[in-house]
Amino acid sequence: MGEEGEGSSLQAETGADQAQVEGQADAAQAEADTAIADRVEGSWVDTKAPDDMKPYLRLSRIDRPIGTWLLLLPCWWGALLGALATPGSSGLTTIWIMLVCGAGAVLMRGAGCTWNDISDRDIDGKVERTRNRPLVAGQVTVREALIWMGFQMFASFLLLLTLNGAAIALGFLALVPVAIYPFAKRFTWWPQVFLGLAFNWGALLAWTAQTGSLGMPAVILYIAGICWTLFYDTIYAHQDAEDDALIGVKSTARLFGENTEYWLRGFLVASVVLMSLAIIYALTPLADPLKLSLSLAGAWAFGAHLNWQLGLLKIDNSAVCLRLFRSNRDAGLIVVLIFAAALLV
């Protein structure tokens, strides 16, 4: 009876120890799931997605939609400005292009982020904000990430095939800056330029899909978008400036330092001036002063929002930097809404 009692006691202790270990493992996983600094609280990825899919959705940043918006908005600028410049074009065509751009932005942003994490897996663990990304945390293997990236790119390719030939060609060319961007911070202080080249490519593609050919207004709008990316991503990069300095990663945030506000003001002015020039170039031949004036008001309202961000900026406060970075969705939507209004008048 004594031996049986001792055996039961030992089994109980062993079971308790196992439960404690499992509980600690679950807690550690939960902490890793929530420790990503710039994730959106209560995302459906956390609350509703199947557990097996969560690491892949996080690789694609589905739980952090701001990047998708920042990729999508220049596409919509290009589509709407192209529609304004070609009054005879079908409204259904414009709507279709905008829908394709919406789905494509989700997929290509996901593919780009997956590629970024594959390329940065050796340095992400050294940065506080990125140390819990799925590849670094061991939730996904490199092979699995490559397969996931390939799936997203193939789906994007199918969408691209619904557009005209010139737009399809531009879609393939977009892969060049996407491929280079993750490595840019290793060889230049201006990696944000490469991000801008990739993130604003949709302005060229959507304009071309709408009008049938690439035009100078789209090129000017593209450069305006690059200046905008330099603005918002420099703010974003200030979150990582200290960690980047320790591991030797370059960024405009580190390059500008305490002079960041002056540089950002320059990017603000450049983006507004260039966007205004693109609008004037596209719409002056129509001799429609109402559409021209309303569209220009969109560019200036966009600039006012960027100026508001500068007034609140504190480069040494990561929470403020993240909040202002995210607010650029609203800045870009101002242009979209006013371009759409100009199209309807």
Care to describe what's here?
- This protein is mainly α.
- It folds into two domains: 2-34; 47-344, Tetracycline Repressor, domain 2 (Orthogonal Bundle), CATH 1.10.357.
- 77% of the residues lie in helices and 0% in strands.
- The protein has 18 helices and no strands.
- Mean pLDDT is 87; it is low at 1-35.
- The chain crosses the membrane at residues 66-85, 91-111, 157-183, 189-207, 214-232, 262-283.
- It comes from Pararhodobacter oceanensis.
| Count of individual beta strands | 0
CATH class of the largest domain: Mainly Alpha
Q: Show unreliable segments.
A: 1-35
CATH topology of the largest domain: the name is Tetracycline Repressor, domain 2
| SSE-based structural type | mainly alpha
What's the tally of helices?
Answer: 18
C-alpha-based Rg, rounded: 24 Å
Distance between the termini: 92 Å
Secondary-structure element pattern, one letter each? HHHHHHHHHHHHHHHHHH
Can you tell me the number of structural domains? 2
CATH architecture field of the largest domain = Orthogonal Bundle
State the helicity in percent bands: over 70%
Average pLDDT rating: 87
**Overall body shape:** globular
Strand content: under 5%
Largest sheet: none
**CATH superfamily of the largest domain, please?**
UbiA prenyltransferase
Subcellular location: Cell inner membrane; Membrane
Membrane topology: Multi-pass membrane protein
InterPro entries: HB_polyprenyltransferase-like, Prenyltransferase, UbiA_prenyltransferase, UbiA_prenylTrfase_CS, UbiA_sf
Keywords: Cell inner membrane, Cell membrane, Magnesium, Membrane, Transferase, Transmembrane, Transmembrane helix, Ubiquinone biosynthesis
